[in-house]
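Quick question, first post here. What does this chain look like in 3D?
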Amino acid sequence: MTVRELGERLSLKELAGAGGLTREVTGCYIGDLLSWVMGRAREGDVWITVMGNLNAIGVAALADTSCIILAENAWLDEDAKAKADQQGVAVLASEENSYCLALRVAELLS
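> Answer (accepted):
Ran it through. Tokens below.
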């Protein structure tokens, strides 16, 4: 399943990084402590967080996650949006909390 397909099935709002919408989704990781995510998220994971800043985009690129989903309508700042667009890091948003999103992602991937 691609990031775009996942976004459509979960009714997520696309915020940035349209170039990353064709990436394959292979798993899911939840976390807000950037150093923790950087060492533990796997390539292809959807990363669910509330961190919508420039550093989050860098971590997503380093960890090679398939995308970032901002939970609970978390805000993506303008610098982060520009960097996500530049690096092709897809950022999507949901009003749901991280737990509910992760359950839905797991259901779609199983």
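The mean pLDDT is 97.
The helical segments are 3-9, 34-40, 54-63, 78-87, 98-109.
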